[in-house]
Every structure is written in C-alpha cells, then in structure tokens.
Amino acid sequence: MKRTIALLLAISLWFGVHESAAQTAYPQITAIKPVAAQVGTTSEHEISFVGNYEGAYQVFVTGKGVTGEVVPGKGPIKVKFTVAADAMLGVRDVRVATPFGVSTLGPLVIAADPIVVEKDKNNTPEEAQPISVPATVCGRIEQNNDIDFFKLTVKAGQAISFHVRSARLRDKVNGEHGRNPNSNLIITLQNAAGEILTSNKNFFFADPFLHHKFAKDGEYLLGIRDVRYRGIDIWHYSIEINERPFVTNVYPLQGTPGRPAKAELFGYNLPAGPITTTVSIPSGIAEGPWSMALPLNGGKTNPVPVVVSSLPFVQEKAGENGLVASAQPIAIPSAVNGRIEKDSDIDCYVFEAKWKERFAFEVLARRYQFGLDSALDSTLRIIRADDGTQLTDNDDFRDSRIGPRNTYSDSFIESWVAPGNDKYCVEIRDLQFRGGPRFAYLLKVTRAEPHFLLDIDTDKTLIKPGTGAVIFVRAHRKHGFTGPIDLHIDGLPAGVTATCGRILDVGNKNRGGGPDGCILLTTKKGATIAAANVTITGTVVHKESGGKEKKFSVVARPRVALYMGGGGRGHYRAAMHTVCVCKPLDIIGVVTSPTEITLKPGESRKIEVTVTRAKDFEKDVSLDVIYQHLGSIYGDSLPKGVTIDAPASKLRLAGADTKGVIVLKAAADVTPARRQLVPIMAHVSINFVQKMSYCGQPLWVTVEVPEKKPDPKAKKK
C-alpha cells in the first residue's frame, strides 16, 4: 500500500512539474457547439479549445460540400460553416489553423433537418423542451446526474427514428481530454402519464438508436442520459429525429466501380416487401470502405456503407452450405458476398490449393459499417475438405499497425500456407451463433501476394520559421515484399521545403521500432504563417519471381496519436495530414555539426547540437534521433545496428543550457546503408504524454561494411 501511495505521489509530482514545461502548445479541440450543421445552410458554431487559439485564421473540413471560416471577434472562437444542399450526411473532421499551430481534430455532424439546440433548463419532465419532427437535437450531458428531456407531439401511426451520436464523436476528440471517460448514453420514450414505452442503449457501439411507431395521438417525452448517471461538459450529442427511411445495411455489400448492381436494403421505415436499389460506384474510387446515399422512391437514403472491390463478384447461393459436403465452390481470387441468414447458420466455401501456396482470407463487415448496423461478429476456420481437420482459425482481427486499441470484430487470416495439393474449406459464422438480415459480410479470398502499406505517425506537423520538423513514415511489408521505399511529399505550404528520405529494406525491429523512414521539413527565418494538407507517397521497384520488375506506389495514411489514461499512446486513422508554419515558440533554432557521417562496424561518431532558446525559456530540452514514448518506438530511421551511445552523449539540456552531444555507434554486425536520412530532434514536453519537436539540418548516415575476405586457412569442404 505504501509503495502504491508513493508511486501515485511521484506521478502527481511529475504531472505538476511537466504540465507547464512548454510555454506554448498547439490548440486542442474539445468540442464543437452545436455539434451538428444542416445541409443547405450557413450556421455559426463555438469551438472549445485547450491551448492558445488566438489569431485563428483557417478551417479545414474533410470531404466535399462543407467549408468553414473563422468569425472575427474576441472571446471564444466561432466558426461559420457553410454546407451545400447536396453535401453527404454524416460526420466530418474539422481542424483550425492558428499562429501557434493547427489544432487536433474535432467532429461535426452534417444533418438533413433543422438544428435544435438544448435549452439551459430541461432536466425534468416538467421542463421538457418542445421540439418539432423532423429535427436534429444538439445538447450535452454536462454534469453528473444530468438528464435532458424533450417534448414532441405526434399522431397515431407515426413511426419515428431517433439516431444518437455521442460516444462515436468523443472517439474523435484527442488531446488532454483523451484521459476522460467516454459517454455511454441511453434514450427513453415515455407518454404523458410517465409510463416508459421503450428505451435503447449500445445500438451503434456505445450510442443508442430507437425506432418507435406511436399507437395514439398525444405528447411524448424523449429522455437522454448516461447509463451511469455521469456527465462531463464536453459530452456533446446529436439526435437525428425523423420519419424518413433509415437504412442500416445493404446486401450484397460489394460495389464494383463502373458496374451498377442491384442490392437489397434493410432498416426502418422502408416500404413493405423486399426493397432493392441500384448501387453505382463511380470509376476511380479507391478499394475499401465507401459511404453513399442510394436511390429510393425518387429520393435518396441516408449514407449507406458498401465495400468497393474490383475482385470477381461471388454471391452466396440459395440452399444449404453449412457443411463441407454442401460447401459452395469458389475460385481464387474472389469477393464472396454472403449473409448469416439465421441463428446457428454456417457458410462454407471450398477451393483448391497447391502445396505451399499462400492465401489471405479477410472478412469485411463490422469495421466497415461506419458506425451503422454492425451485427456480425465473425469467426473464420480453414479446414481440410476430405476429413474436416481444422488447420487454422481467427476470431478478432487486431490491426497492429495502429496499436493495441484497434481490434475489430471482423476476422482476418492474413497469410495461410497450404500444407499440400488438396481441397480446403473456409468456414464463416457468427461467434455467438446469431443471424439475420443484418448479418451480411464480404469475404475476400486472395493469394497472399507481396505488397506494402504505409502509415504516418501523426496527423499534423508543426514547423517554426528557421527550424525544421520531421514526419516519420512506417512501412508494413506483406508476404515477402522487399526493397527500399522512396518517400515523396506533395502540397506543402509556401516557404516550406522537404528533404525526403527512404525506408530501408532492413529495419530496427530489434529495438521495437522500424522499419521507418522520414521526411525532414525546413523553413527560413521570417517564413509566412500558413497551413496546408499534404499527401505522402512511397514508391519502390520490386523484383518479382523471374526477375521482372514492378513499380509500386502507395499513399501513406495519417494516424492520430491518442493519449490514454495512464500516459499510454495509441492511434486511430485520420483523413488528413496538415503541415503548418507557426510562430516561433520555445525553440527558435537547432544547428547540428557535422551533417554527414560515415560509420564502420564498432565505430562511433559525435554530432554536436546547438539549440537557440526563445527569450526566458529555460525548461528542459531533450535530444534524440528516435521518436519514442514510454519505451515504445514510433519513429526510427536509423540503419539497423546503429544506436545512440547514451553514456557518451549529452541528451538533456537543463536550465539555460544550449549545447548537447549525440554519439551514434555502429555495432559489430551493423547493416550497410548509404546516406540514410536521420533527424536530430530537440523535444520540449507539453505534459506527461505530449511534446513539441524541433529539428536541425538533415543528418545523412552512411554505414560501410568491409567485405569479408576468405580465410586461406579455412578447410575446404
């Protein structure tokens, strides 16, 4: 117990010392109020921040049809959003650029109906706020025991949907408030006598959805609260209330670019009988998840998730296919569109394979539902067709590229090797043996061919005039893909130049990082404050079997660094990476000497680092060439076998100290490398988990390994 108290005290002291380590930090969005905007309108919204947002000058919004501009004035920042009449409904990411850097991302819901903002007092049935249907209600559960009530007048026979977004919005809010718990709301409908008619929670993950057909005319109350009776002032919500059709999913899920196809719709307030529509995916849409409004009765549905794939389309046949003997034959590659139609249903597909052929089996269902209906919790098995022997299986797929937090209910057997020339069966079912119309899936069955994926460690890069900044890019090589990957960046703001490195074929997996590469950005003193979204690509020429060369080019996907309780650092996907030139902050210059070194096995080289501090800034500065946090490495472009010799280095600059030393050392078994780009970083802590990074000139590291001469005394075999 004493050790626990001592540890907690140490952590609290650490926070107290380091919370103010940086004099300035980029702004972090905590909420947008109201959290929704209506199509075809222009509306003002207040954005809450942590950090300095003074002088905000630009607004970024993902997708098309929505623009934002900062409203001049003092006090809390306001943004005017203009939403086109044909803008896609759903959630957009918003970012604000300021002289102190671009903000974290905040969510904005684009809704079809008029926005109704919660009144100050609506916490009892007697204070219920009147609303008309249709509407999009925006409010918040701002404190413990908060319950919000809304009153609506309906006619007998009206069938109304109540779609809540809250926890799914909070998942997108980062920064210091990432340590706060998430909302878990419940909604209830009750009549004028106080009788509860129905309620719902956890329909779309931790968000509720309710559909109710009213039997009588009258006034009814809609209540919303947290299931634990908790509340925080940043727990905003939106409730989309209307009588329109609400589509949760389609079947089949696959859409092929340039090939219109019929699909059946499932959801609420749909016409009686099987309802079909045409899914038309425009040419040029990237493979993977896609959300689109589908035609229905002369209008359009809410955004519906489909999976864009050019793989050969295969649809599950009618009849029994739950046993190996009745399994449906498929060719490889295939995109199998199926459905677990009822409880205890199992689908089996049989294919032929040769010895040592490598395959991938990927289920696309729940993680591509965009927070809509996500019923199937799939599990996969590969079994031998002749005797039913299980060879491998998978339940949940963990995307290790973006951290332990990103585990999906979809199954993925990424690299399975056939043990012989034989027939095999892939079996799919729901983990809990559930089934129904909402349990659709797309099963991709492909050969595991060499390829690679790229991730950017962050969703934003801040650079101060006269200094540099680094962007780390991590490669994920699949199925034997080899070769160095050359990096490239497009769309930089004016006045920013880039030195693009490469990702070496051999990374530093022995240190828990890599294989990574980096791009170093630099500016001159007096550079204009500006921000722009960039695109980073990686290109490699890969030699296939037979010596044929194939050029691959992959766009890197930005990731948002999520800071969790306890100081952990995770990631989730983002749709933009923004580079921002901002005001000089705590460090106004980093100079390194030399800027090019050559190492041989066992050798060390010293790099002197001089930091120019801003006036009156005397907090600690730490030096590094690896981006790491609590022992985990998030950026490491060093050649394999090259490390920092910490005892010989001076990595901490305390007080007004400005001069440090980094010593790089090559191991005896170091891997050769030619002019590998390595960043020299000076870190200033913002708090326990966040830090600002400043870079100097590019450092080029070459590793020369002498060829081994044959030993003349060695005995010949």
Give me the secondary-structure topology.
Elements: H1 2-18, E1 28-33, E2 36-38, E3 42-50, E4 58-61, E5 66-71, E6 77-83, E7 90-98, E8 101-102, E9 106-111, E10 115-117, E11 129-130, E12 135-140, E13 147-154, E14 159-165, H2 167-170, E15 185-191, E16 196-201, E17 209-213, E18 218-226, E19 236-242, E20 246-251, E21 254-255, E22 261-268, E23 275-279, E24 288-296, E25 299-308, E26 313-315, E27 328-329, E28 334-339, E29 346-353, E30 358-364, E31 378-384, E32 390-394, E33 397-398, E34 407-408, E35 412-417, E36 422-430, E37 440-447, E38 451-456, E39 460-463, E40 468-478, E41 485-490, E42 496-500, E43 502-503, E44 516-523, E45 530-533, E46 535-543, E47 549-555, E48 557-563, E49 569-573, E50 578-581, E51 587-593, E52 596-599, E53 604-613, E54 621-624, E55 627-629, E56 632-635, E57 642-644, E58 652-653, E59 659-666, E60 673-678, E61 681-685, E62 691-695, E63 699-703
Parallel strand pairs: 2-9, 10-12, 11-13, 21-25, 26-28, 27-29, 38-48, 39-50, 52-63
Antiparallel strand pairs: 1-3, 3-6, 4-7, 5-6, 7-8, 7-9, 12-19, 13-18, 14-17, 14-19, 15-16, 15-18, 20-22, 22-23, 24-25, 28-37, 29-36, 30-35, 30-37, 31-32, 31-36, 33-34, 38-40, 40-44, 41-43, 41-46, 42-44, 45-50, 46-47, 48-49, 51-53, 53-59, 54-58, 54-61, 55-56, 57-59, 60-63, 61-62
Description of the structure:
Helices cover 3% and strands 50% of the residues. It has 2 helices and 63 strands. Strands 42-44-40-38-48-49 form a 6-stranded mixed beta sheet, with no helix packed on it. Mean pLDDT is 88; it is low at 1-22, 369-373 and 401-405.
